[in-house]
């Protein structure tokens, strides 16, 4: 999915706080393991505890999926103290759900979850300022009577950027559902002239569900003809026509994890300029994929792909960053763009999605979700990237 809003965790935690957190050795494990990793970051930051209020981060650390929750994680190892001081708070609607999803944690049942957790807290308590409003901060500060609140943005997001084995498996399944949907649409002649953009989008989404997805991971983009020059075009009832470039940007949601893939094809036979444009973007995408490796700055990955397009004279028509992290959120750390500050690590999952957009004529974008490994990048999306697809036309 092209384009990305810059978020606070694109900025290194050390830049915001003056503290450089350490990343403990990562090993496959469940939610308790993730909380252990977080404790290492809390100790490095000089925090006694962290109040987690973002629901995605709560899910990552506990498995709880309700709509009202907060988590207080202490920096000390609870096992060493013979007690579990990490507490999940939620309201009465979720008592049964919390017991089922978080059997390893005590649950505090209160409506005002954040203030309730701080009532008995003490010391230097971090909070994620990226997810707390000014009014919310005032409520938290009033509840904390024996300590101080400290800004601690991005600690959990930094951990989320490197996936464990269970997360990678969910992402593989999400990518497989999207691959299956596209293969089915093509095989059944679903990209033929006369169908509308909206029909194709609905077809992809229904097939993803049939392949095991909970639903689409974001609003499906189907853009035909001149609409393909609009990176985030919303599907309309406009019919596909012979000679149209057709861009489809879509993904599947499996166990809370998002896939993200874009393919550009042609309705009918391509013109020479369309084939040349597709070849150029395919070359840029291949350069971006080849640049993915641990220790590489994400801005350099962006440059590897962008330089191909710029050298061909279309630099101004590549109007967004090359990619982004993907996981429990469709756009998450690390950013892959010309201004990004991140460095790749093994276990990160990112997209590579160069595009060239020619106003009034159409555009091409090719995107894959990839896993960074010690041996390079492994594509999790497997669909062919061809401009022309053979299909069975039902008409």
From TrEMBL:
InterPro entries: Creatin/AminoP/Spt16_N, Creatinase/aminopeptidase-like, Creatinase_N, Pept_M24, Pept_M24_MAP, Peptidase_M24B, Peptidase_M24B_aminopep-P_CS
Domain of life: Bacteria
Record keyword NAD present: no
One Pfam short name: Creatinase_N
Record domain Creatinase N-terminal: where: 34-162
Region (Disordered) location: 1-32
Keywords: Hydrolase, Metal-binding
Every Peptidase M24 domain range: 170-374
Designated name of the protein: Xaa-Pro peptidase family protein
Organism expressing this protein natively: Actinomycetospora chlora
